[in-house]
Automatic annotation (TrEMBL):
InterPro entries assigned to the protein according to its UniProt record, in alphabetical order: EF-hand-dom_pair (IPR011992), EF_Hand_1_Ca_BS (IPR018247), EF_hand_dom (IPR002048), MCP (IPR002067), MCP_dom_sf (IPR023395), MCP_transmembrane (IPR018108)
Species of provenance: Octactis speculum
Pfam families: EF-hand_8 (PF13833), Mito_carr (PF00153)
Biological process, per Gene Ontology: transmembrane transport
Phylogenetic placement of the source organism: Eukaryota, Sar, Stramenopiles, Ochrophyta, Dictyochophyceae
Protein's name in the database: EF-hand domain-containing protein
Amino acid sequence: SISAEELGSAMKKLGYPLNKSAVRNILIKVDKDGSGQVDFDEFREFFRFVPDASLANIMNVWLDGTPIDCGSDLSPPVISPSVPWYYALFGGLGGIVSRCMTAPLEKIKLDAQTTGSRNSLVSELRNTYRTLGVRGLYAGNFANCCRVFPYAGIVTYCYLTGLKYMPTISNGDPMEPVYRGSVAALSGMTGQLVTYPIDAVRLRLTVAPERYHGILNCGLTIVREEGIRALYKGLNPTLFCVVPFLACQMITADTLKARCAINDIEVTPLRMLVIGGTAGLLAQTMVYPMDVLRRRMQAGVQTPHNSSSSKAALSEHTTVALRQIFQREGVRSLFAGIIPSYMKIFPAVAIAMTTTKTLIGVSLNYKKHGWNRA
């Protein structure tokens, strides 16, 4: 059998310096009889899907907690309380690389959401390139990347702190998914509240790059012309989006992984890509009308068809504003830009996962071969 002390010592030698609480949380996952130790049968059952039975691979499965980043700012990069802190750092870097690689699709999506444009993706990309050049395709991306680490840090801190007060942490309560989802949702809402002005500035820089000269100039211009409240336009629909988005994403991912386990299917990186992409796609579809509404509010636009008319004023109340868009522009406008949104999900997940896993692998390899010699 394996005790918590023996597990902690083994993981430390492999480059996973976890504290006693984190080791105990891992032990709970495997210790089915609650004895405080892992016997051979429990160990074999938990790791029977590991193709290469090396200790390093077993620890990677045990720690399985790197975040799935589907490229949406609604999805907080929540990590497991059992993983080292630098997993969050590498996850953030993976998110930045992912956003840089998919920035042109994000630009076209935001333009469609704020204007109701129904032009084809190729046409929009061509028009943006002709009028604004290559830089136009990446308008607002720097601000988007600047938000990754503050948002990730706030969400992760709130999530891990919140888990300490959940009963599942100490006794393996079967309600763990509900507790975990609730804490993740509250953490995501907290992250949105604190970093929302950065997202509002990012949206303005993306849809009207010729009007502003950088992040600071954009923020100051918005406050000077529209007041500080303008930095929080669309906050209500954003907060309404976070809970259903997270619930749908987490339940879908957990269900698909559970189905793989039931059918003795190994969760390979490719299957994890499919799981993460599918979860992100369903979650994005579920909240997309709210996403369109919050972008309209952030951009300060009314309706694209008659913005000069007083009748076109978009209400600040979420349900009323949704009804206005639906009545004036039809249901299609509530899904404007969804095609580029779909197109970026799987590449975003793949790029973020690959980057994160590569950085983790390099770090572990350097610890094993470089730091030991030092």
